[in-house]
Design a protein that fits this description.
This protein has about 475 residues and is of the alpha+beta class. It has two domains: about 25-360, L-arginine/glycine Amidinotransferase, Chain A (5-stranded Propeller); about 365-470, Immunoglobulins (Immunoglobulin-like), CATH 2.60.40. The protein has helices spanning about 50-55, 65-80, 100, 145-160, 190-195, 200-210, 255-265, 325-335; strands at about 25-30, 35-40, 60-65, 85-90, 105-110, 115-120, 125-130, 165-170, 175-180, 185, 215-220, 225, 235-240, 240-245, 275-280, 285-290, 295-300, 305-310, 310-315, 340-345, 360, 365-370, 375-380, 385-390, 405-410, 415-420, 420, 425-430, 440-450, 455, 465-470.
Length: about 475
């Protein structure tokens, strides 16, 4: 890539007061953060089973263009037993199902208010894996054009009551994945699409000013010819963990994905540590026609094209030999989450569940961020745990509810230690007492504010928790 801008550390806010200290950096929401629900489209291009699950505990925000379509949707939702209080219709000019690509990019501004960034949208262009850089003014290969989709963010912003910021750049959601700390992953196709209008540096600067993203990890295209969206082979599970497709060695995607993995191994998270890279096996589930020649080609399941929504994960299943293992991989990677496998014969290797859904985030979210203890710790000394807590509700934090909860592996009860504020606004610490060598420790963190919000890390605690062990230290001499 031509430039990487190093991000500043996220500043904390609020501590025990209702006011932040000065303007905050812009921050784009990460997928695993607290959400009100999911944005989808009617007429549906997702299965009814998925709609029922999305609406069970959260809200579905349904983009719809016409009166008759809204009435059909209401009738169907009633027949499916969906609670009408969990449905919100947004009347807009929607034309296609890809809410991930044209839908609302949600960013917290300097005042801590949720805003909607509105990029330009036409459709997703096609690129070869090794295409030359696009020249200014080039005509890109779009299979379709959807001007109605490009206007939807104006109506969504008005409905939700959020400010709208339009930008003169493409920022296709399926090819722009963020870590919640002002870093983003994309393939070369993202900047190539914008090269028809501007340079890489101009694109990065527009996005930086609109979203706060400052570090752009531009990776190699992986498909021989296609849309090259990164969400079909990579998923950010949390602020330090990536899930990456493993293709069969004889498949054309194998080599470029593995080269990208080697590049990622050299990158650092916002905590200055290497990313934890997990792999998910993706054996072929059948064939799909080539975009241009229509020749049938081996198709790999896009298991990374999944949706994290609060404490649930929705994984597309393709009816192939890798489906069961894919569910197991997610369950092991995300303990405590409800993992729902969604089998449907209309998922494609380049267009699955993530592409057709998009979270609507909580504008008053209680957000927690933590560099988990992920390596063995020296025995016979306390283990210090730090966490950042940000209450976008502007409510005071409930001091007695800010806790570190820990136990020795196998113990039934959790010990509860109150988190203490530090000199850094929004940063809290607590200690796990010194332990004997070889002790296995589990822990999780909890916070609450006076808006009534309560959160934990991991978000599925206590069903999910973090773990580490202690080791003997070697005396000098």
């Amino acid at each position: 890539m031509k430039r990487s801008i190093v991000a500043a550390l996220l500043c904390g806010a609020l501590c025990f007061t209702a006011c932040s200290e000065g303007p905050r950096p812009l921050r784009m929401c990460a997928e695993w953060e607290p959400a009100l629900g999911t944005m989808i489209v009617w007429p549906l291009m997702i299965p009814a089973e998925l709609v029922r699950l999305l609406a069970k505990d959260e809200i579905i925000f349904v983009l719809v263009a016409y009166d008759e379509d809204e009435q059909r949707a209401r009738t169907a939702f009633d027949e499916w037993g969906i609670d009408p209080d969990h449905v919100q219709f947004i009347r807009t000019s929607v034309e296609s199902e890809w809410t991930r690509d044209y839908g609302a990019q949600m960013v917290f501004d300097e005042a801590g208010d949720l805003t909607i960034v509105d990029p330009v949208y036409i459709d997703t262009p096609l690129f070869h894996a090794d295409t030359p850089e696009v020249k200014r003014g080039a005509e890109l290969l779009y299979l379709g054009r959807y001007p109605g989709d490009d206007r939807t963010n104006h109506d969504v912003a008005a409905f939700l009551g959020h400010p709208l910021r339009s930008i003169p750049a493409f920022l296709t959601g399926g090819n722009f994945l963020v870590d919640g700390h002002r870093s983003a992953f994309m393939t070369r196709a993202m900047v190539d699409e914008n090269n028809a209008r501007m340079s890489d540096d101009e694109f990065f600067e527009i996005v930086r000013q609109a979203t706060g993203v400052e570090t752009f990890h531009v990776l190699e295209n992986t498909e021989p010819f296609g849309i090259q969206h990164i969400d079909c082979w990579l998923k950010i599970l949390d602020e330090e963990t990536l899930l990456v497709k493993r293709a069969p060695e004889d498949h054309p995607e194998y080599a470029p994905i593995e080269r990208n993995v080697e590049r990622i191994r050299k990158l650092k998270t916002r905590y200055g540590r290497p990313w934890k890279i997990l792999r998910i096996d993706c054996p072929p589930f059948g064939t799909e026609p080539d975009f241009i020649t229509k020749e049938e080609m081996p198709a790999l399941p896009a298991y990374t094209n999944s949706l994290i929504l609060n404490r649930s994960i929705f994984v597309p299943l393709f009816g192939g030999p890798g489906d069961d293992q894919a569910i197991t991989t997610y369950e092991e990677a995300m303990p405590g989450y409800r993992v729902h496998g969604i089998l449907w014969d209309q998922w494609r290797s380049f267009d699955a569940l993530h592409c057709r859904t998009r979270a609507v985030f909580d504008p008053g979210m209680l957000r927690m961020s933590h560099a988990r203890v992920r390596s063995a710790q020296p025995a016979d000394r306390p283990i210090v745990v730090r966490v950042e807590i940000e209450a976008y509700s502007r409510g005071r934090l409930v001091r007695d509810e800010l806790t570190l909860n820990w136990r020795r592996r196998g113990a039934g009860e959790w010990d509860r230690v109150q988190l203490q504020p530090t000199d850094d606004p929004g940063v809290f610490v607590a200690e796990i007492p010194a332990q004997a060598p070889g002790t296995e420790i589990d822990y999780y963190l909890v916070a609450a504010d006076h808006s009534g919000r309560r959160e934990s890390l991991p978000r599925t605690a206590p069903d999910g928790f973090y773990s580490f062990s202690t080791v003997a230290t070697v005396s000098p001499g």
